[in-house]
UniProtKB/TrEMBL annotation:
Matching Pfam families: BPD_transp_1
InterPro entries: MetI-like, MetI-like_sf
Its membrane topology: Multi-pass membrane protein
Primary location class: membrane
Record key words, sorted: Cell membrane, Membrane, Transmembrane, Transmembrane helix, Transport
UniProt similarity note: Belongs to the binding-protein-dependent transport system permease family.
Organism (species): Nitratireductor rhodophyticola
Name of the molecule in the record: Carbohydrate ABC transporter permease
Length: 279
């Protein structure tokens, strides 16, 4: 009886906490998008108000498209993110399948070693990474960013996907082997379709840090031809004068791909998180 009585209160409290967190998380996005459509004076006078006919202005978007090579920055970010995401999902899923399916000496230690990559920030190795890229002639190339982001995303991908792949029925895989399927076909045709929610979860958690990163593009690829969208937005930030209209417009455009990805994979993402919680 006491549990039944307290359950509505707990539900209300949980929803209140979630609603508060949602408001806090969305507030910066709201401020950025709203002020991107305002004049400079309105940004500082009424930053929290919606644009009105008097304050509405597209000067920020016009500046981004005219002064900065925004399309090139967007293209670089898109290429780096897509290729890195593809490599993380492919190699992460293969490694997770090997750890989950095959029992070999050092299996547990290998999983623990890969899990350490989640706990140790890759930025601690920035100097060594820069030296390695310089020695390989990869500075100011998109390849350097792709390699770093792939290495950065693999530990989390392997950790998540291996747990899901352990839940795939052994009978299904053995039936495939009896039918003459190779290990590659079992992986691609039987296992991968069953872990799509987990793949979507990994994709979202991997894409957002890559798309928003400023650290490695600034260090490894600061040339004009290899700038990403986050680094390109710094063009409008000066030492003495900052074009806030252009900065907010660039950030608003940078939000779109992440938002589109979430809308596409939202169902798979929620399924992946909830099924992981149940397991």
């Amino acid at each position: 009886m006491s549990t039944a009585r307290h359950s509505p209160a707990r539900s209300i409290a949980a929803h209140a906490v979630l609603a508060t967190y949602t408001i806090i998380a969305l507030f910066p996005v709201f401020v950025i998008v709203v002020n991107a459509f305002k004049s400079r004076k309105a940004i500082f006078r009424t930053p929290l108000e919606l644009p009105t006919p008097e304050t509405f202005s597209l000067i920020g978007f016009e500046t981004v498209l005219k002064q900065g090579d925004f399309l090139l920055y967007f293209q670089n970010s898109f290429v780096v993110t897509v290729v890195s995401l593809f490599m993380v999902l492919l190699f992460g899923a293969m490694a997770a399948f090997a750890l989950a399916e095959y029992r070999f000496k050092g299996n547990s230690l290998m999983g623990l070693y890969l899990a350490l990559g989640i706990m140790i920030p890759i930025r601690l190795g920035t100097v060594a990474i820069l030296q390695m890229m310089a020695a390989s002639g990869l500075v100011n190339t998109l390849t350097s960013l792709i390699l770093v982001y792939t290495a950065q995303g693999l530990p989390l991908a392997i950790f998540i996907l291996s747990e899901f792949m352990r839940q795939v029925s052994d009978d299904l895989k053995n039936a495939g082997r009896i039918d003459g399927l190779s290990e590659y076909r079992i992986f691609f045709r039987l296992v991968l379709p069953l872990v799509r929610p987990a793949m979507a979860t990994v994709a979202v958690f991997t894409m957002i840090p890559i798309w928003n990163d400023l650290w490695f593009p600034l260090i490894l690829a600061p040339a004009e031809a290899t700038k990403t969208i986050t680094l390109g937005a710094q063009v409008f930030i000066g030492q003495f004068v900052t074009n806030w209209n252009a900065v907010l417009a660039a950030l608003s455009l940078a939000i779109l791909p992440v938002l589109i990805l979430y809308l596409i994979f939202s169902r798979q993402l929620i399924r992946g998180i909830t099924s992981g919680a149940v397991k």
